[in-house]
Amino acid sequence: MYLLENPTKSYAWGSRTLIAELLGTAASEQPQAELWIGAHPTSPSELVDSRHDLHSLVESDPAGVLGPHVRAAFGDRLPYLLKVLAVDRPLSLQVHPDQHQATVGFDADRRAPATDRVFKDPNHKAELAYAVTPFEALCGFRPVAAARETFAWLARRMPGMREFGQLAHLLDGPDDRVALRAACRHIAGLSTDDVAAMIDCLPSAATNSPDPSLHTAADFAQSYPSDAAVLLAILMRHVSLAPGEALGVEPGTPHTYLRGGIVELTTCSDNTIRAGLTDKPTDVEQFLEVLTYRPLASATLASRRVGVAERSYTTGHPEFELSVLRLDPGLTVRWEPKPRAVLVLDGKISVTDSTGTSELGRGESVFVPADTGPVVVAGDGLAVQAMTGV
């Protein structure tokens, strides 16, 4: 078992306090957006009291660290990445590729200058977000009829803005996928002047509408007054999570996280394709190619009770599964051998394997290789565990 020291990422949308409070440190001078726990080669977790990191540990002994089942399924790599995200401002409007898109894109990007590369690795990216505070997002396309009605309402309210009516017309076809593709392509092809004029209408229009997606787009207007991604937001589903609820994000699903704190578990990939709402590089054409054009019936995930103290969440991708432990004194949980990362969110937790016991407090984490045998967890607190589904 290895105690971990985990890297943080500083992005403009992050929080100065949320990750600091989790780690028990003073508020940071710069926004801390992400805490990474895993073996991604660009930012692996460090092994405390060792000169090695988790990526090099896996490379040096994949059979022992991963175990035969995980290694047979995913090769010589840890297939998941556990994160804490602290969202004070909206992220970019983004999408992640499926496996075929990632493989082809990464191979093509290797021939391009490093600064022009969109694909960072050859792996698909799926996500699971578990809310630790109230959390809001736009995730996936909402029912086409709802988006069509909003654009039609904007056209009636702003008769001089003919593009609103055109978008309502494009969304009126019998095939939702064809309609969504046409609407997204139309928005991406608008002139900068048309986009700016349409966005300028949104704040006043939103005051007379109960539509949460329109309100979110109106909120974007001041910061991004000529960004077509603001209009794409009207096509998307607004999602609110209470602490303890979870959200699944499949490859091809457009999304942006708006505010709140989450534990995020993903496949071990950093492939993100952005359409806007950011100062980072965007690739709108690639974004439109990767999108899955279908309305999202529901983004929230049901949990599965594993025992008295544990609930499990999964999106069905075998690379990762998240379990949440709420332990009271006297309760113990036993896990069979598997590569596991454990992060304490509150209280104190003890983790025991064949190498000994680690006593963990808030913000502390360990990695347990497969070859250290069964694991016993006890204590009084709240923790999350990342593992594979195989």
Task: Give structural notes.
One of its GO terms (molecular function) is zinc ion binding. Keywords: Isomerase, Metal-binding, Zinc. Its EC number is 5.3.1.8. Pfam families: PMI_typeI_cat. The active site is at 274. There is one protein chain. The chain has 390 residues and is α+β, with helices and mostly antiparallel strands. The chain folds into three domains: 2-139 and 240-278 and 292-301, Jelly Rolls (Sandwich); 144-230, no CATH class; 318-387, Jelly Rolls (Sandwich), CATH 2.60.120. Helix content is 28%, strand content 30%. The chain contains eleven helices and 21 strands. Strands 1, 4, 14, 15, 16, 17, 18, 19, 20 and 21 form a ten-stranded antiparallel β-sheet that branches. The longest helix is centred in the middle third of the chain and has 15 residues, at 192-206. The protein is elongated. The model has no long low-confidence stretch (mean pLDDT 95).
Output the keywords.
alpha+beta; Jelly Rolls; 21 strands; zinc; Mannose-6-P_Isomerase; PMI_typeI_cat
Question: Brief description of this entry?
Answer:
This is mannose-6-phosphate isomerase. The protein is α+β, with helices and mostly antiparallel strands and 390 residues long.
